Amino acid sequence: MDENNNESTEDTIKVNIDLLLVQRQMSLTQLSEKVGVTMANLSILKRGKAKAIRFSTLIAICKALGCQPGDILELQQNDNV
Fold it and tell me: Which one of 2.60.120.10, 1.10.260.40, 1.10.3720.10, 2.30.30.240 gives the CATH number of domain 17-76?
C-alpha cells in the first residue's frame, strides 16, 4: 500500500455543517456573515478539506447555529486498520 495515500486506513473527522444549516434553515452565506469567516474558508471546512479549525471559529459557529462542538464534528473510525 502507498504510504502517502492513507485516506482509506485513517480515522477521519466528518463535519456536519450542511446538516445543521438545513435544520436551522440558514444559508452558508448567512453563517459566514454571523461568524465572520469567509465563504471560502467555511466551504473548505464544510467539505471536510480543512486540516484544522481554531477554537474561536468553532465557538462562533456553535453560537451562530445554537449547537455544541460535537454536533458539528464527528469522529469516523476506520475499522479496517
Answer: 1.10.260.40
Q: What's the pTM value of the predicted model, to 2 decimals?
A: 0.82
Q: What is the pLDDT of residues 25-64, one digit of tens each?
A: 999 999 999 999 999 999 999 999 999 999 999 999 999 9
b/e for 29-65, b at 16 or more Cβ within 10 A?
A: eebbeebebeeeebeebbeeeeeebeeebeebbbebb
